[in-house]
Amino acid sequence: MSSVNLMAREVAAKIVFYGPGLSGKTTTLRKVYETVRPAHRGEMMSIATEGDRTLFFDFLPVKVERVGDCSVRLALYTVPGQVFYNATRKLVLQGADGVVFVADSQAEAMDANRESLANLEENLLENGIRLDRFPLVMQWNKRDLESTLSVEELRRELNPRGVPDFETAATNGRGVLDTLKTITRLVIKDLRAKRIVPPPRPAPPPPGTAPAGLEAQLAQHLTQRQPPAAPLSPAPRTLTAPAPPRVEPAPMPAPAAVVNTAARLLGATSALAPGDLFDHARAAEAAFVAADYTTCVTACTDAVRRAMAFAGEGTLAQQAFLLHVDGADLLRLQGLSTQPHLRVDDAAFSLYVLMQVFVRLNAVGLPTAG
Length: 370
Hints:
By secondary structure, the protein is of the alpha/beta class. It has 2 domains: 3-193, 3-Layer(aba) Sandwich (Rossmann fold); 264-364, no CATH class. 41% of the residues lie in helices and 12% in strands. It contains 13 helices and 7 strands. The protein has helices at 25-35, 86-93, 110-126, 151-158, 176-193, 214-224, 261-265, 268-272, 278-289, 293-308, 316-323, 327-336, 344-364; strands at 3-5, 10-18, 59-67, 70-78, 98-104, 136-141, 165-167. Strands 1, 2, 3, 4, 5, 6 and 7 form a 7-stranded mixed beta sheet that branches. α9 runs antiparallel to α10 (293-308) and α9 (278-289) packs antiparallel against α13 (344-364). The longest helix is centred in the last third of the chain and has 21 residues, at 344-364. It is globular and about 65 Å long. The relative contact order is 0.10.
């Protein structure tokens, strides 16, 4: 599921909280929701039964400040712990970039922990993923209770590979954010190893040091050159007759190629974009101005997917129906995103679809403030 906006330097990743029923997965997400600043969190959605068991999943988009020089947006999910909802667990697990296994530390829950961990490994294998090569963090939950197993025994039974693990008490939040930070680092490390996340930008040289390379040194030398100083005394006056006034020709209009590019970056798409998607819209417009039509289409496709998500959970067709967005245009945009060679009209159409989605969001008052 991970996606990257190279222009905005933003990475979107999916993390799933897995474990047996009533182990504390939903409580963990609720505590994350309460802890994260409102400006950096989305809406938490949950479907639960009367017994407080998550029937489908919880979804909580959280924006992490920075990882290196990339901003990260996490989509946090939980799965139903009951065995008879395994089809739903498979569905939620698809496209995951990392997993937090939430184990119940109570002795009577050990069998359920083993069964759920084996189920996780089996479902990942169906997606062609081996658990021992996948970002994983173990969360020993309910450590605030008295009848809990020792951490050494939990590690022996459930963590023979020695992946990072944390003692947590989801009800009061102890250890929850440490778990989230660690799985985030593992996910980003894995995405970088797969060359999905761009490497960090090289740091600029310290002030006062010459940059490496002849070309860079010449550039620095040219930028440091100062114009010649004005003479200290005025030039001697002469008694010649005054010259007739010179009529300056009217200035020629500057060609379009030299119009300030920065002024064109804030175009119609950026003006329509909600605050959360402003950077994505600006990146798409910048790519269009630079004639990088492939990047423009990619940025528009990513922004459209994010914008449609404001309509709630469901398929793209369902979201388009709710927002009254032309489904044929969305299908064509999806088709363009898979094409190797794109033209200017393809990029312009992508911007048109993105503006269409933004207009519909504004019409229905989404996203809501707060």
